[in-house]
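in:
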């Protein structure tokens, strides 16, 4: 089982009856996933290098999946591997609305989020304090979206 936010969101959108296509980094990178994710989140030079080596291919894959699926909404969680040009293309070519949920604010605002967030139609953050920072970037639709839980995982258990 994947114990990450993206997986929980995917599961619950399906439970609510939505048709969902999931494109996750763990599916592609296996054991290297967390290392790669943390590196490209924290260091812009590493993200620039990843663009050349790997992210261009991943972003073309995302476009191809979206062309076949024709989504109404593209929800990106964290978004460290979705290039702003890809989001721009998805909006222009498919007419899809785009939303970024960045739950780790304000930790990586300077190293990642300020570069990717402006391309999205909507931005959601877990941090009340980050809302003003997004608005300073010119983002009009920014909202606080606090964490929830996945009841099949996050529940009380009796230890005794």
């Amino acid at each position: 089982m994947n114990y990450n936010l993206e997986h929980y969101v995917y599961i619950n959108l399906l439970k609510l009856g939505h048709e969902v296509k999931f494109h996750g980094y763990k599916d592609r990178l296996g054991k290297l996933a967390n290392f790669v994710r943390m590196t490209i989140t924290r260091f812009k030079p590493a993200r620039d290098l990843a663009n050349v080596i790997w992210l261009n291919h991943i972003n073309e894959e995302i476009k191809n999946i979206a062309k076949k699926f024709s989504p109404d909404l593209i929800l990106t969680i964290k978004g460290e591997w979705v290039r702003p040009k890809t989001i721009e293309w998805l909006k222009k070519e498919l007419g899809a609305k785009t939303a970024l949920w960045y739950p780790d604010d304000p930790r990586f605002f300077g190293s990642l989020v300020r570069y990717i967030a402006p391309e999205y139609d909507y931005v959601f953050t877990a941090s009340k304090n980050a809302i003003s920072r997004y608005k300073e970037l010119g983002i009009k639709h920014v909202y606080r979206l606090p964490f929830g839980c996945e009841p099949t995982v996050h529940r009380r258990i009796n230890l005794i």
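note: The chain is about 50% helix and 10% strand.
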